[in-house]
Design goal:
3 domains; 32% helix; binds zinc ion; alpha/beta; TIM Barrel; six-stranded mixed beta sheet; 22 strands; 24% strand; globular; Diaminopimelate Epimerase, Chain A, domain 1; eight-stranded parallel beta sheet
């Protein structure tokens, strides 16, 4: 199967043709010979397809069939959103609400949710994704026994309970095809799913969606436990994911033991680090167990200045999500001491210090659109217009680069549009300089994975 993309800009050179054969770039040059399938690039830039280095695919798929709390800032608005959601479903049905934060209506409890939804099985997820709060009907529907350690029946709270909830609720998994299509529209050709809950069953479902073309992007999967790669390469096995919770940090020796366990599986380690305390513990654990290229700090939500040298010395990559500055910046500014604001979701200072940085969405907890992440990395402004850590701003070309690395080496191996490379490509509707002046996914004209338009 061959395809020629005519008249594109490649790495700053305009007017080139790119011929693709057997899923790879076969030739780049001027006025290449005619072939059966051709795409007119109209002078647009042809860049490597984007990689989202940290995403949660099932979470993103589930969001499509949930109630979200965007725009909710008060208890009365929260109540109104729940009322509208329950009114749309028959009594006894499950209602799933995503994106809660205490600033909306305080600490949620089972009783508070009973008052809001007395006839439905209601569950509300905290914005961090680590906590669900259930009403009494929802709790009763889960049955008794085998309670996971994070479940508090009295308050209706369940920490890190997604896997257990899934087995108890038993609903059909949400479809992945809309997620694959949406990400393809953004020019995304590779995904690293960072879910700690991924087991053989979940990985099998993602692999099946990939084989069926529903999720055409190349997949790398993290997991909390062991995971085997399928022989057909439907996904690659990524780092072992370690989750830390500030309310129950694990013991340093236990942490170092988990790193050793990952090494025994031949895998790197990716640690969820949002707070300064989580980062300090992670640096200590990597210091103890040893670290190297491929080990990752996910989020790097707060990085105090004195941690930067340690990150660099340990060879850790920071996988950041600049879109949080835009989407949650106003709340951060209200809840974080002014002198700590520059520590939030650092980017420029890490790159300047030689710390590898990669870009990602953490969708569904922030937008899955990488172009909004690029814009946020450049602007460093909250939705309300506050400037946050402007010293961490990077130019748009640098921000785009955060999404162009090989998924196996985020922050370390920039992919290129060159002969012999896989034809995982993003065609833009204008030269790169013009697109980067106002980054937007609307500038994506076509996305190809292994040479096939998706
Ligand atoms: Zn995440």
């Amino acid at each position: 199967m061959t395809l020629t993309i005519r008249n594109v800009e490649v790495e700053g050179r305009a007017g080139l043709d790119v011929r693709i054969a057997d899923g790879r770039i076969a030739q780049i040059g001027r006025r290449l010979a005619a072939c059966a399938d051709e795409i007119d690039g109209r002078g647009g830039a042809l860049i490597p397809g984007l990689c989202d280095h940290h995403i949660h695919l099932f979470g993103l798929a589930a969001r499509a069939d949930s109630v979200t709390l965007e725009g909710v800032a008060t208890a009365s608005r929260f109540a109104a959103r729940i009322a509208a959601a329950t009114a749309a479903k028959p009594a006894g049905a499950w209602v799933r609400v995503l994106g809660y934060h205490e600033t909306m209506a305080g600490e949620l409890t089972r009783e508070a949710l009973d008052r809001l939804a007395p006839r439905h099985r209601l569950r509300v997820q905290h914005q961090t994704g680590s906590l669900w709060v259930l009403n009494s009907l929802a709790l009763a529907a889960l049955g008794e026994g085998d309670d996971p350690p994070g479940l508090e029946r009295a308050t209706g709270r369940i920490w890190r309970g997604d896997a257990w909830l899934r087995t108890r609720i038993g609903a059909a998994p949400p479809p992945l095809r809309p997620v694959g299509a949406r990400l393809a529209r953004y020019g995304v050709t590779a995904l690293t799913d960072a879910s700690v809950t991924t087991d053989a069953d979940a990985a099998g479902r993602l692999a099946q969606a990939h084989r069926a073309g529903a999720l055409p992007q190349r997949l790398t999967l993290m997991s909390g436990g062991p995971l085997d790669a399928p022989p057909d390469g439907a996904f690659a096995v990524g780092p072992v994911k370690v989750l830390l919770d500030d309310h129950a940090l694990i013991d340093l020796d236990d942490f170092a033991g988990r790193i050793a366990g990952a090494r025994a599986q031949g895998r790197r380690v990716a640690v969820h680090c949002v707070t300064a305390a989580e980062l300090a513990l992670s640096l200590a654990a990597f210091g103890l167990a040893g670290a190297g290229p491929g080990d990752r700090i996910e989020h790097g939500g707060v990085i105090p200045p004195d941690a930067i040298g340690e990150l660099r010395a340990l060879g850790l990559t920071v996988v950041t999500q600049s879109a949080f500055i835009h989407e949650r910046g106003d709340r951060y500014a209200a809840g974080v001491a002014a002198e700590d604001l520059p520590d939030l979701y650092r980017c420029a200072s890490l790159l300047a210090a030689g710390v590898p940085v990669a870009g990602s969405s953490d969708a569904p907890y922030a937008t899955p659109d990488p172009w909004l992440g690029i814009a946020a990395a450049v602007e460093r402004r909250s939705a309300g217009g506050l400037a946050i850590g402007v010293g961490e701003a990077v130019d748009a070309a640098t921000a785009l680069d955060l999404y162009l690395d090989d998924p196996a080496a985020p922050g370390r191996a920039r992919r290129r549009v060159a002969a012999g490379e896989p034809a995982d490509l993003c065609l833009l509707d204008a030269p790169l300089r013009e697109v980067l002046a106002t980054p937007s996914s609307e500038r994506v004209a076509a996305t190809l994975i292994a040479g096939r338009p998706v």
